[in-house]
């Protein structure tokens, strides 16, 4: 099939009385070599190709492209489907080789620029109309060729990314199941790191998700897409995330034991993720070698859940931050007995909230009052009522530890958290 072209009835452009296509046809071999030289000068991505490929396939493609443009110049007809299919196939090979799309498109534009320069060098004042015709055909050729290049490149990348996604998801599934992930890593073409930093994330709502008149599903997906993009900028993670949260495995080759974590670095990462998605994040982090990722994911989820139940709020939480709460959240008769100490407060949520805030703010009644938006005297009253109902006073040394433990047990989820 030949693409329609308005220039069919326009005579072939001539410069100095000579058909323009004949001038370019005679120069095609030398012009192809010139284009190759300029490609290597201006588009560094082509330096990564093997020399034999540059001297063979690449130079032939360039010369064939010049001859295809010569035909457009001669006939006024844009390239047919056969030529466009060849261009799509060539572009797909460049995509498979890792040449950036802008370099592939730039190569055609560079060739067109050099062809135009040769034509202009032959044109005189009397050739203005022919020059306009040549320019129109050049722009038409560039338009359909650029579309073919982009289509071939994108189709190849989509296929490659689809295969890569399936392989990476298989590796993620194997890591989450436990056991030896090496076979799955080989299939995915992924080198297993010394350890993974496991992030368990709870993603709060973006303001757009609650705004009237906004498609809340779209807003949630945009939030998740921004968070994933920020993670990709940090490393090449494996993720199992929804709009509400999930797990992210960040490869880490740090020569450090699993329990050693860079709190400052992880805090900075969580801050960046929070800014990127525009929503509050509660995050817990654990490190583990690949064979122990499954247990680390469960532990990170438990830490995050315990931190949330303890009222720790958004941000990064490590096991060292919630050691007492975590231990007391384990099921058993001791936990049940501790939680029962606060049973008299079951119908008084304001007393529980005040006790929790008072312990969180280091027994500072004024900071507690500010947090609760009440008067300090109200805090004092509620603490006295708590003491009267439970027999445990939050400001008395022996009772303080018991209350902390009882509150941790009370806030623990039923059964096994996570």
Structural commentary:
The structure is a single chain. With 418 residues, the chain is α+β, with helices and mostly antiparallel strands. The chain has 3 domains: 6-160, Globin-like (Orthogonal Bundle); 194-321, Alpha-Beta Plaits, CATH 3.30.70.270; 328-411, PucR C-terminal helix-turn-helix domain (Arc Repressor Mutant, subunit A, Orthogonal Bundle), CATH 1.10.10.2840. 62% of the residues lie in helices and 9% in strands. The chain has 15 helices and 7 strands. It has helices spanning 20-42, 51-75, 81-97, 101-122, 128-177, 182-188, 216-234, 263-277, 293-309, 323-328, 333-340, 349-360, 365-372, 376-390, 397-411, and strands spanning 14-15, 18-19, 195-203, 238-242, 245-252, 281-288, 315-317. The strands form 2 sheets. The chain has a 5-stranded mixed β-sheet with strand order 4-5-3-6-7. It has a two-stranded antiparallel sheet with strand order 1-2. Helix 1 packs antiparallel against helix 2. The chain is elongated, with a radius of gyration of 34 Å. The two termini are 61 Å apart. This is Putative transcriptional regulator.
